[in-house]
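TASK: fixed-backbone design
INPUT:
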């Protein structure tokens, strides 16, 4: 049975192909179109999946959309109606349902609904099935859909290595639901608890993300990064907003938030009364005087340092409350399921600080779907249909996160030839390649590293990575100045051989397939005595978002780490995604050459070919 899963319409459009229970290909549209978080119909991702399998669209048995579009439209109309009523009389909810029914029966759409429904009518978003039929020229009976959190549940459990597990999904919002606890056994998923709007931990975190001056659905990582510079001094004030229920659920106090109409600011005047002025986007951030330009006066510098501390403290407080909530929900899910196997998906599952605590403090066998956000629902939708509708036997778990575009040697050669860059050499073997690359890395070079199939999910895992020497204290600044141009508070992550991981980081790696560290989805402390050895990847609070690599999970990358260890004594490289700021990760050799040409990367490695940014005479 061939099932194509699709996610599109809101953010992170993607396609994934499941054939007889095996994930054959999965790709995110942004990698092909070069538009970050591209939400448009994933035409290129579909083409990629079909090409990988050597199939035509007519060969596909069923195409599955990742959510119930009409139910989501219902929610948006309902939420806007509630909001309008709140504005009118200052009270909340009450007659919302009745109002909504009245609104939808009206011969004309009320003015307050026009703006929120415009794109829905224009793009016919409430009939995603029709859109798919049009785009792919397939009959309607070949297309179906599953609920948003059913997609997340399936992505979390069916791709995990577990036969029996607790499943927790948490995100901003799907149709109405924002979090679900379920139990997975074999091919069955049984829901136990659902949390719906207006209670949403994803929207709670995003509201603070917006308040801290970052883009929602993009800047959540920056909140995590900034948290490391602060102390949770506002914990009590933030914690008051969250009620943890005994049944594993939670409630968010609504007076501070605007969760119902996300196109407006997600927080209220009451929020501002409690937490003060929002941070301006791109506002200067510094934790010590030396981070700031000399020409600033002392009072100007002090003002920046003071406000930076305040916002970092707030980020730390929000992060701590979020971790407590995640641990609370996971503990209940684990108790209900009667197992310490826990699977996560939904955008909140990308909170790698919370994941680290679930592993270290709670001792769970954790699986996090690598593309835990809505892109992953392309796989989730296909998997949910495959098991719950088609009643097929349990599919295979994730064999590898390298499910994206393969590196085509002919494409690479053509892109290099057209670029005018000098080929330093093309190695005859991977052994020779890694010795050469390790040598230049040890000499201080920054490397663009493109190997094999691209990664599934937001993290670069050694297929489309920028690599550098983790032992060099200046390397964070060098990579930032040459290519990443990131804010000071964003850390760089390490890749480490799995066998050496516990010598440098304070956790015991679970080498079973599917451990979150294979996908760089958990933060762990750097061992105190090692911090000074690997300063480039040690964050302000002494932590690191670790990727473990084995000879089985990525043989060439593992060999490179070992070759680097022979030169510098540590099997650790700085590993950051190969992209310019604000762009998606590079996918094709052409993308890599283009990024290489406008950045200060020293060498580009495409398969076994090493290209230099300098003209070699
Ligand atoms: Fe979601």
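OUTPUT:
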């Amino acid at each position: 049975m061939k099932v194509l899963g699709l996610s599109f319409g809101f953010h992170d459009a993607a396609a994934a192909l499941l054939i007889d229970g095996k994930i054959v290909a999965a790709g995110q549209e942004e990698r092909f179109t070069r538009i970050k978080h591209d939400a448009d119909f994933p035409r290129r991702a579909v083409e990629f999946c079909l090409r990988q399998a050597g199939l035509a669209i007519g060969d596909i048995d069923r195409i599955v959309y990742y959510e119930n579009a009409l139910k989501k439209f219902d929610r948006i109309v309902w939420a806007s109606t509630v909001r309008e009523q709140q504005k009118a009389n200052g009270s909340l909810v009450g007659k919302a349902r009745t109002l909504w029914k009245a609104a939808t029966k009206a011969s004309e759409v009320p003015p307050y609904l026009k703006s929120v429904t415009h794109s829905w009518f224009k793009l016919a978003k409430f009939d995603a099935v029709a859109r798919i039929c049009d785009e792919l020229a397939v009959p309607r009976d070949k297309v179906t859909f599953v609920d948003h959190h059913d997609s997340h549940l399936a992505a979390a459990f069916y791709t995990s290595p577990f036969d029996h597990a607790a499943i927790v999904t948490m995100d901003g919002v799907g149709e109405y639901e924002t979090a679900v606890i379920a139990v997975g056994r074999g091919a069955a998923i049984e829901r136990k608890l659902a949390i719906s709007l207006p209670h949403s931990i994803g929207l709670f975190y995003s509201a603070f993300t917006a308040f801290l001056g970052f883009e929602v659905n993009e800047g959540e990582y920056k909140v995590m990064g900034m948290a490391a510079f602060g102390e949770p001094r506002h914990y009590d004030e933030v914690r008051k907003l969250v009620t943890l229920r005994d049944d594993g659920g939670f409630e968010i106090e609504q007076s501070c938030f605007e969760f119902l109409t996300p196109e407006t600011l997600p927080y209220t005047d009451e929020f501002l009364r409690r937490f003060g002025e929002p941070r301006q986007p791109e506002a200067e951030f510094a934790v010590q005087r030396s981070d700031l330009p000399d020409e600033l006066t002392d009072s100007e510098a002090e003002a920046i340092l003071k406000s930076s501390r305040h916002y970092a403290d707030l980020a730390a407080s929000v992060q701590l409350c979020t971790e407590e909530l995640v641990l609370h929900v996971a503990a209940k899910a684990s108790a209900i399921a009667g197992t310490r196997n826990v699977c996560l998906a939904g955008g909140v599952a990308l909170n790698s600080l919370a994941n680290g605590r679930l592993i270290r403090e709670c001792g769970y066998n954790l699986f996090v779907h690598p593309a835990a956000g809505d892109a992953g629902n392309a796989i989730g939708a296909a998997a949910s249909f495959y098991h719950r509708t088609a009643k097929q036997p349990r599919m295979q778990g994730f064999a590898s996160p390298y499910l994206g575009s393969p590196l085509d040697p002919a494409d690479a050669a053509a892109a290099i030839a057209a670029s005018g860059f000098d080929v330093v050499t093309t190695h005859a073997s991977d052994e020779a390649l890694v010795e050469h690359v390790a040598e230049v890395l040890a000499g201080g070079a920054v490397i663009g590293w493109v190997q094999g199939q691209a990664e599934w999910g937001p993290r670069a895992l050694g297929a489309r990575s920028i690599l550098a020497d983790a032992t060099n204290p200046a390397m964070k600044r060098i990579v930032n100045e040459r290519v990443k141009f990131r804010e000071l508070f964003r850390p760089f992550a390490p890749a480490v051989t799995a066998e050496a991981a516990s010598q440098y980081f304070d956790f015991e790696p679970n080498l079973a397939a599917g451990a979150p560290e294979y996908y760089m989805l958990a933060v762990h402390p750097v061992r105190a005595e090692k911090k000074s050895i690997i300063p480039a990847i040690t964050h302000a609070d002494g932590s690191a978002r670790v990727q473990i690599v084995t000879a089985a999970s990525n043989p060439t990358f593992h060999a490179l780490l070992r070759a680097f260890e022979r030169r510098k004594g540590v099997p650790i490289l700085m590993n950051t995604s190969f992209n310019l700021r604000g762009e998606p990760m590079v996918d094709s050799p052409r993308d890599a050459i283009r990024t290489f040409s406008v950045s200060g990367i020293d060498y580009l490695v495409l398969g076994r070919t090493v290209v230099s940014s300098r003209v070699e005479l």
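COMMENT: The chain has a mean pLDDT of 91.
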